[in-house]
Specification:
Layout: H1 4-10, H2 21-50, H3 86-92, H4 107-123, H5 125-135, H6 137-178, H7 181-192, H8 198-224, H9 231-251, H10 264-273, E1 279-280, H11 290-294, H12 297-328, H13 336-361, H14 368-390, H15 398-410, H16 422-426, H17 431-456, H18 463-487, E2 505-506
Antiparallel strand pairs: 1-2
Pfam family, one: MFS_1
Transmembrane segments: 21-39, 112-132, 139-159, 199-218, 230-251, 290-314, 335-354, 374-393, 400-419, 439-457, 469-488
InterPro entries: MFS (IPR011701), MFS_dom (IPR020846), MFS_Na/Anion_cotransporter (IPR050382), MFS_trans_sf (IPR036259)
Length: 518
């Protein structure tokens, strides 16, 4: 093993397995995504709890009611708090219950509330990417998450003072503050992640999305039925946000060069291995090459595969609960275990795919391009097949249907090592902007998918109509990945490093010819 002294002498950071500052940045991003997704999901549970007043004479055995079929959150399965164990509820009733209000929202008002987050979320995608690459990701994520934490704390007060309309405004503002999360995370990864660790570090960051969803599903029901009631869902979540802000302020930095405690060895290792081109100084960046970006086939194939992925993925997450209930008589939303199972499997498989990528790394003949396209194919074409199969599972074989559903959602974790990190491959300098462009367009698709399903499925108990939905989603999966396999590239594009003053550039060092992603 190379000693620290030898690393300084040779200029190499040979021990890549050392837990370094770059890993700390990714762990902080993991919790950033955890909070972001927990704050998205919390309303789907809170709506159930805040619209059904419990029986005051027997709180331990009350049910907060089932959410409507139409109450579909674009980012999660709804969770019915009646799935909480009666024994634990009884224990919680020893504490005095604080006064809280309950509301009667119409189904249309609920749908507005559940979708309002995304009205703001889509707007700040591209501006967020631009700001992150120009001024750094640290302060953008800090201000965005802090603002979202404050808005989360204000949610109970907003609905008390202004009804569902005020609450909807709060959700739109939360979406605006979170729109930069993915672009800024990508921008940070482009500065911190060595090329051969890019997939692994990206997986660490983005698996926080699944963890946040699981955490909120597992805890919201308990919190809503505690002495503090449903407002505590928002108070606890907002408070956790400020704990994260403190750690982020102390330990995070937009670039390795700006970090106060990074070692010279790790800094040199990152600088020498993060890109084959040139990293521009964020304060002296050349104008974004919009024309070159939108006429680049590798980028356009990335844009399309991101959109098709979101169509298929959110068709699953928003419509499968209705399918399972109407065809197999399984109420996924009434079980916290079934609701969180696909996310749990997805999180576990994401780290299995990182391990598999390490195995493939040892095959020197396998290129980075092969790795990206292999994992993207696994994450799209296997769900394509399982989706079609799901439409033909007999009604009496509900267990197989649940298994196929879990596989379809879980296996999509392979895309973390596929298209989802390809923005950094194409353009480390403009990775945040590229993610803003593709994620913004993809979230439009995630909003359109449930509307299309509503037009196709007129009778929820007609399995033939559901098969049409699955075939459509499978077609999106097939076409998107096919275009990525044909036109996708992993080489840094020429427009990533336009001609600018040499003083504003940091010279890059070429990588090995066939780096495998980890």
């Amino acid at each position: 093993m190379t000693t620290a002294l030898n690393m300084v002498k040779t200029g190499k950071y040979a021990n890549e397995k050392i837990f370094g500052v770059r890993h700390v940045q990714c762990i902080l991003c993991f919790f950033c995504l955890t909070l972001a997704y927990a704050w998205r999901v919390n309303l789907s549970v809170a709506l159930v709890a805040m619209t059904e007043q419990p029986n005051n004479t027997n709180v331990a055995n009350h049910s907060l009611g089932d959410s409507s079929e139409e109450q579909q959150d674009l980012d999660s399965f709804s969770v019915d708090v009646s799935s909480i164990s009666t024994q634990l509820r009884a224990q919680l009733t020893f504490l005095p219950r604080l006064p809280r209000q309950y509301y009667q929202f119409t189904e249309q008002e609920k749908s507005y509330l559940l979708s309002s987050f995304f009205w703001g979320y889509i707007v700040t995608q591209v501006p967020g990417g631009y700001i992150a690459q120009r001024y750094g990701a640290k302060m953008l994520l800090l201000s965005g998450l802090a603002a979202c934490g404050i808005l989360t704390l204000l949610t109970p007060l907003s609905v008390k003072l202004g009804g569902w309309q005020a609450m909807g405004v709060i959700r739109v503002l939360e979406g605006l503050t979170q729109g930069a999360v993915h672009p800024a995370t990508h921008s940070l990864l482009s500065k911190w992640a060595p090329a051969n660790e890019r997939g692994m570090l990206a997986t660490i960051c983005y698996s926080g999305a699944q963890f946040g969803t699981i955490l909120m599903m597992a805890t919201s029901g308990f919190i809503a039925d505690s002495f503090a009631g449903w407002p505590a869902i928002f108070y606890c979540g907002g408070a956790c946000g400020f704990i994260w802000v403190v750690f982020w302020w102390i330990f995070a930095a937009s670039t390795p060069e700006e970090h106060r405690t990074i070692t010279r060895e790790e800094l040199k290792f990152i600088e020498e291995s993060r890109t084959v081109g040139k990293m521009q100084d964020s304060h002296k960046m050349a104008p974004t090459p919009w024309t070159a970006i939108f006429t680049s086939m590798p980028f356009m194939s990335l844009l399309i595969v991101h959109c098709t992925h979101m169509w298929g993925f959110w068709t699953l997450l928003t419509q499968i609960p209705s399918y399972m209930k109407n065809i197999y008589d399984i109420d996924i939303k009434s079980s916290a275990l079934l609701s969180s199972l696909p996310y749990t499997v997805m999180m576990v498989l994401s780290f299995f795919f990182v391990w598999l990528s390490k195995v493939l790394q040892n095959k020197k003949s396998l290129s980075l391009s092969f790795n990206r396209k292999f994992f993207n194919t696994v994450g799209h074409w296997i769900p394509m097949c399982s989706l079609i199969a799901l439409g033909y599972v007999p009604r009496e074989n509900a267990a197989l249907a649940v298994g196929l559903l879990t596989l379809t959602v879980g296996i999509s974790a392979a895309t973390y090592l596929g298209f989802q990190v390809n923005h950094i491959d194409l353009s480390p300098n403009y990775a945040g902007t590229l993610m803003g462009l593709t994620n913004g367009a993809a979230n439009v698709m995630s909003a359109l998918a449930p509307l299309a399903v509503g037009q196709i499925v007129q009778n929820p108990q007609n399995v033939h109509e559901w098969r049409t939905v699955f075939f459509l989603a499978a077609a999106f999966y097939f076409v998107g990945n096919l275009l990525f396999v044909i036109f996708g590239r992993t080489e840094t594009q020429w427009w990533d490093s336009p001609e600018v003053d040499a003083d504003s550039m940091e010279a890059g060092v070429p990588l090995n010819s066939n780096p495998a992603d980890v």
